[in-house]
Amino acid sequence: MIWSPGEAEQAAREFDLRRLPPKFYLDPYPVYRALREAEPVKRLPDGSLFLSAYDDLVAVYKDTVAFSSDKREEFRPKYGDGPLYEHHTTSLVFNDPPLHTRVRKLISGALTPRAIADLAPDLEALVESLLDAMETHTDLIEDFAAKIPVEVIGNLLAVPRAERGPLRGWSLAILGALEPVPTPQALKAGNEAVAEMSAYLEGLIAERRKAPGDPARDVLTRLLAGEGEERLSAKELVHNCIFLLNAGHETTTNLIGNALATLCAWPGERRRLIDAPDLIGPAIEEFLRFESSNQLGNRRATREAEIGGVKLGPGQLLTLGIGAANRDPRQFRDPERLDVARSPNRHLAFAAGAHQCAGLALARLEGRVAIGRLLARFPRFALSGEPTLGGRARFRGYLKLPARLD
């Protein structure tokens, strides 16, 4: 046990996203539980509010007028005027309409159910090839989970396979700078990654303008062509391609890795899933709920409002505790238990409302194929060493997951 009840309660009373204790990165859930029970709308030392109750998060997600996703005001003191600021204030996820509406419409048009279904055969072949190549002693992140989304998103943007090597490192650096308090080293790495990724994509975009691909399968060609009168500026195009590469990579890597680690900790549920492989659909939803890849979100109040009985003024900053809300007992029965057949399971791992993840169907497909095929091939896989967590509060996932495949 990492936390004693008294320690978790004290950590909740002293909770400060800017000064988190080391134990929190290993297991935040006892602290989240104490926050939900004692102070579900928690005022932090910097004046912002942390929300941990499911219903409060849903209310914020659904009211896009009162609660803005635009981060220009919040991110300027954090990033200054460098590449990170330009990226995070131009990409889809941290914007309101009309930019959010324009970009989401273009991306969603390339991720229709039919388009996702068309990706399945190539994805299945990729997963089988990775499983064929894995040694008895392997790392389930480096050799499996991290390779799948890089290939899938690389294919969607038609990034030449030989040029995909830097994508994971760029992604980790850029998203690592989104931590509540990034270190100077993290800011430097993030700014360098944005600059390098932008330069690479500018070249890729120039090539695609000369030789367009199939807009039904090539998201970059679709973004270049636009739809009707909708077009992206050169800057919007580059930064939303960065967003696609990062969002599609990091969260899906974490989904697969977190699921495999969780199955090792819950052998009864693993046996249940192996014996009934048709449960893979609800199991993916449960992995997303139980160990959410994205643990935190942010909003800014645009006017007077009220959440959880607390009145807010214009400009109030909010942190949405996704990992906390996904274990709220008022929404989920026995929420601290993994249940691969849980139903209903209206988790918030993909957010909700207008900002619900545009690539959720693709992430679910990748999770079903990757986890389902690995369990079918190696049902007795076991951890062979100490896993290494990423050490981040916003994105929860493993950097290393050493395993033995029997």
Commentary on this structure:
The chain has 406 residues and is α+β, with helices and mostly antiparallel strands. The protein has one domain (40-404): Cytochrome P450 (Cytochrome p450, Orthogonal Bundle). Helix content is 52%, strand content 9%. The protein has 18 helices and twelve strands. The strands form four sheets. A five-stranded mixed β-sheet has the order 1-2-8-5-3, sandwiched between helices. Strands 4-12-9 form a three-stranded antiparallel β-sheet. A two-stranded antiparallel sheet has the order 6-7. Strand 1 and strand 2 form a beta hairpin. Helix 1 (5-13) packs across helix 3 (29-38), helix 8 (113-133) crosses helix 10 and helix 8 (113-133) packs parallel to helix 18. The mean pLDDT is 94.
CATH fourth-tier homologous superfamily: Cytochrome P450
**Computed structural class:** alpha+beta
Average pLDDT rating: 94
**Number of separate structural domains:** 1
Helix content: 40-55%
Number of helices in the DSSP assignment: 18
Quote the beta fraction: 5-15%
How far apart the termini lie comes to: 29 Å
3D shape = globular
Q: And the CATH topology?
A: Cytochrome p450
Computed CA radius of gyration, to the nearest angstrom? 21 Å
User: Could you list the spans in which at least 5 consecutive residues all have pLDDT below 50?
Assistant: none
CATH architecture: Orthogonal Bundle
Q: Count the strands?
A: 12
Give the secondary structure arrangement, pairings included.
Elements: H1 5-13, H2 22-26, H3 29-38, E1 41-43, E2 49-51, H4 54-62, E3 67-68, H5 72-79, H6 83-88, H7 99-110, H8 113-133, E4 137-139, H9 141-145, H10 147-156, H11 167-176, H12 184-210, H13 219-225, H14 234-265, H15 267-275, H16 280-290, E5 296-301, E6 305-307, E7 310-312, E8 317-321, H17 322-325, H18 360-377, E9 382-383, E10 388-389, E11 398-400, E12 402-404
Parallel strand pairs: 2-8
Antiparallel strand pairs: 1-2, 3-5, 4-12, 5-8, 6-7, 9-12, 10-11
